[in-house]
Amino acid sequence: MARQPAERGTAEAEGQRRRRRAAVAGGTTAACVGAASLAVESAAGVAHGIPWPVVVPFILVCSAFAGWAGARTGRENAVRAQTLGPGERLIGSYAVRPPFTPGRAPTPYENPPYQLLLTSRHLQLWERSNLLWARPWPELRLAVDGPRLKIYHRGEEAGFMVLEPPGTPLEVQLAARRLGAS
């Protein structure tokens, strides 16, 4: 069943419009950049004997995929931006390496679905465009254990994660102290 559009002039309608605009902008940018870079590379391939009828469909398929990925990323960023309160600003975003199943390590090209966002008021954990939790800085305590970051909320463990790139847990802990976490 399709989602019904919100009534014009409401906050929900404005949010839908922003998400749609971000998705279109992200998709268009990614498709254009992808097509341009492939066209330049393909021109070199044509000079080496690869026929244009092979090159053009390849460019179209790759730029369509890039457009889809860009639209998805743009929508996710718009959803995350909507959660910020008045006067709150995004300070940093860090990739969280998901826990991998035994016997299957994550491949290097997999896009991590989890993001840890630092804002001026909260620490947020996202799974793609779903907010899993948001905790205010004064209620948090962060501890670094080698490459892992342990997050405690009101004395109980709220998260235990490995952040990318290496050295990020210490960076997050220092930022948290400046923002009011213990």
Describe the 3D structure.
The protein has 182 residues and is α+β, with helices and mostly antiparallel strands. 44% of the residues lie in helices and 26% in strands. It has a 7-stranded antiparallel β-sheet, with helices on one face. β6 and β7 (156-164) form a beta hairpin. The mean pLDDT is 80.
List keywords for this structure.
single chain, about 180 residues, 7 strands, globular
C-alpha geometry:
globular
Number of strands: 7
Give the strand order of the largest sheet, numbering strands 1, 2, ... along the chain.
4-3-2-1-7-6-5
* Biggest sheet details: 7 strands, antiparallel
User: Which structural class is indicated by helix and strand composition?
Assistant: alpha+beta
* Radius of gyration based on Cα positions: 21 Å
Order of helices and strands: HHEEEEEEEH
Strand content: 25-35%
How many H/I helices? 3
Helix content: 40-55%
> Span between N and C termini?
47 Å
Residue-averaged pLDDT: 80
Low-confidence stretches: none
What oligomeric assembly is this protein in? single chain
Q: How would you briefly describe this protein structure?
A:
Helix content is 44%, strand content 26%. It is an alpha+beta fold and 182 residues long. The longest helix is centred in the N-terminal third of the chain and has 37 residues, at 11-47.
